[in-house]
Design a protein that fits this description.
Helix 6 crosses helix 8 and helix 17 crosses helix 20. The chain is built from 20 helices and 25 strands. The chain has two domains: 340 residues, TIM Barrel; 189 residues, Class I glutamine amidotransferase (GATase) domain (Rossmann fold, 3-Layer(aba) Sandwich). The chain is globular, with a radius of gyration of 25 Å. Strand 8, helix 14 and strand 9 form a beta-alpha-beta unit.
């Protein structure tokens, strides 16, 4: 296989501290022979790097790095801060986080720290600096990963301890006065007014619902703590390892922090892709029949949504300040490649069920990552763990060191033609974490944020359309169609930007659009606030529908959520509700280039987006179930996620396979 410097690269996550030293050289030789370029190390190695406070033992990692270097491999070095050692947690139990029940989360696993803890932040800076000084200019070390999987295991928010102590100060800096806070939160409701900053605690364990504005600000605060933590590490790495890139490995559909904020200082982003495992966790969106159909491959759109999100994540900071409506536009994103830092290559160990991937699935996942913009795919892990929590998880090697099924797929995989370059998406899907937080806090039986967003995304992908997932403040100039499935919070400055964007492209807004003010309240003059002329009218009624209860709109069944509109003069009603309490009200309305959809209906949406995409000049190719198209660098990947062969446009695609055309 002949590869250029502009070809998709492959890598692996390895743990030299888990195996005898006499295996290191042989593993490095095998990794090089397999065609790997990079090896990630040390993200969980704090206790072996600093076994006692201030006492460092780098000799083993020195040898491991030199062994990889001698084999011609490049090293991705990690800061080991995801696993604070026992000596630290026992000496300083105040670093430990609290769960939603107000209980301390104990030592004995990972991610057992509170991002707001001054003690933990100081110790994290210290170990980060020690590792950066030691390896910052080593010729084998080409880049860094900070920490590991922020917020995994619901660790993005601590509800006591250091975070509880820091939250009132964060609020005081945000609002200035208690009167301003009480007004923003609507605390006159249920006599919730505060008269002292120290009366305010994390929003848990209330008798009934917690004030959603309180929750929203706590989520903002927790996200800011992660951002600060990230920025501290990145600054140290920049100082002591100049010329190396810095990334972080994010997770699928992670909701506990604003990824745009947290990724701002990175060179590019990475994420960890476990298709079969994550399918089990998002079954409510897709249904048991779909979960069974894709049990050995994962659902193609659950995976590709995250590829498309992380491809364009960098450098768009959401504006959280109270004066955001008067603030200038945020910096615009820079498009670029991303990495899959952990790619499943066999069965996982952490899902309710853990089937083996189908033959061809590892190759399919790798090709899909490239087609959606990945510059490198790194498999987890090299050798299956023979100890502790992950003994049931696969690696490229089995426990007995023989090559496993994933190893053989990587060895056979052809990468000629998988050249790096742009994904030519002409459709943008707008995604916003603040809208996610407030919508899910009071979803009222309607679809959750990710489920509603996924419905729009999968409709576009089923039409053969490439999609960029973007922040609402991103530059939309290169897109013909912009789709905002669940943008429930749209400050005035953002509406002004969207008004300008709508002048040159079609825009679609989903249910519950512009329902909330920046503090989480409803608009005093109803949904869409002062921007009814932009969205096309006013909201009259909304309802959430229990399972089995449906209404109809345009001949399509509407489930879960329906809101009806009264169009303003000059607005066209595209689809009307038929029967029931909403009969005669607009389900879909259009004013100029802006289309507002109030009905949650996958069938309605598929037909509507197909028509709008064609109107916008976007190529539409309705695809068979389980077939997907993705384009990059002048090539198209045609992928069959079905177990059985498929005939498509003159191609015969075997089950679970892909072809580059």
């Amino acid at each position: 296989m002949t590869l250029t410097d502009n070809t998709l690269r492959l890598a692996v996550c390895d743990y030299p501290e888990h195996v005898p030293r006499d295996r290191w050289a042989e593993y490095a030789r095998m990794q090089k022979d397999l065609g790997l370029t990079y090896v990630r190390v040390a993200e969980f190695a704090w206790s072996r790097l600093e076994p006692a406070e201030g006492h460092y033992t780098f000799d083993w990692l020195d040898e491991a790095v030199e062994t990889l270097h001698a084999a011609g491999l490049k090293v991705v070095m990690c800061t080991p801060t995801a696993t604070p050692p026992a000596w630290l947690t026992r000496a300083h139990p105040e670093i430990l986080p609290y769960d939603r029940e107000g209980r301390v989360r104990e030592f004995g696993s990972r991610r057992h720290y509170d991002f707001a803890s001054p003690v933990y932040r100081e110790r994290s800076r210290r170990i980060t600096r020690a590792v950066a000084v030691r390896y910052g200019d080593h010729p084998a070390v080409v880049g860094w990963q900070t920490d590991n999987e922020f917020a995994c295991h619901s660790t993005g928010r601590s509800y006591g301890g250091a975070s509880a102590a820091a939250f009132p100060g964060w609020l005081r800096r945000r609002y200035g006065t208690l009167d301003a806070l009480n007004e923003a939160w609507g605390n006159v409701f249920w006599s919730m007014d505060y008269t002292d900053w120290n009366q305010i605690r994390p929003p848990i364990l209330t008798v009934t619902e917690t004030n959603p504005s309180h929750v929203l600000d706590y989520f903002r605060f927790a996200s800011d703590m992660i951002r600060e933590f990230q920025e501290e590490q990145v600054a140290i790495l920049r100082e002591h390892s100049p010329g190396r890139w810095v990334t972080h490995n994010f997770m699928i559909f992670e909701s506990e922090f604003d990824h745009y904020d947290v990724s701002e200082t990175l060179d590019f982003v990475s994420w960890d892709n476990y298709p079969t495992g994550m399918l089990e966790y998002f079954g409510k969106w897709v249904g048991e029949d779909v979960k069974l159909r894709y049990a050995r491959t994962g659902h193609p759109d659950l995976i590709s949504f995250n590829h498309d999100l992380y491809r364009g994540l960098k450098r768009v900071r959401a504006r959280h300040d109270v004066e955001a409506e008067d603030a200038p536009p945020a910096p615009q994103p820079q498009r670029g490649g991303f990495w899959v830092m952990e790619q499943q290559c066999g069965q996982v160990n952490w899902a309710p069920y853990n089937p083996l991937p189908a033959d061809g699935a590892v190759s399919l996942w790798t090709a899909q990552a490239w087609a959606h913009g990945a510059d490198c795919v790194s498999y987890f892990r090299w050798r299956a763990a023979t100890m502790s929590q992950e003994v049931m998880h696969s690696g490229l090697l089995r426990h007995d060191e023989t090559p496993d099924r994933g190893f053989e797929e990587v060895r056979r995989m052809e990468r000629e033609g998988l050249t790096l370059g742009a994904v030519p998406a002409r459709v943008a899907l707008v995604h916003d974490y603040e809208s996610l937080w407030i919508l899910d806090e009071q979803k009222q039986g309607g679809p959750a944020y990710w489920a509603q967003t996924f419905t729009y995304y999968t409709a576009l992908r089923a039409l053969g359309i490439d999609v960029d997932v973007v922040h609402p403040d991103a530059d939309l100039g290169g897109y013909a169609l912009v789709v905002a499935p669940a943008l429930t919070m749209i400050p005035e400055a953002r509406v002004a930007k969207l008004r300008a964007d709508a002048g040159g492209r079609l825009m679609v807004f989903g249910p519950r659009a512009a329902f909330r003010t920046p503090s989480g309240r409803a608009h005093e003059n109803g949904q869409f606030g002062d921007d009814k002329d932009f969205f096309g009218g006013r909201s009259l009624n909304f309802e959430s529908l229990r399972p089995g209860l449906t209404v109809r709109a345009g001949g399509h069944a509407v489930t879960q959520w329906a809101e009806g509109y009264e169009p303003a003069p000059g607005t066209r009603t595209l689809i009307t509700y038929e029967g029931g309490p909403l009969a005669g009200q607009a389900a879909v309305m259009r004013r100029g280039n802006v289309v507002t959809v109030g009905a949650h209906s996958p069938e309605l949406l598929h037909a509507l987006l197909a028509d709008l995409a064609r109107e916008a000049g976007v190529d539409v190719t309705p695809l068979p179930e389980g077939v997907r198209l993705s384009r990059r660098s002048g090539h198209t990947v045609v992928a069959n996620w079905n177990a059985d062969p498929v005939e498509f446009e003159g191609l015969t695609l075997p089950g679970v396979s892909w072809r580059l055309v």
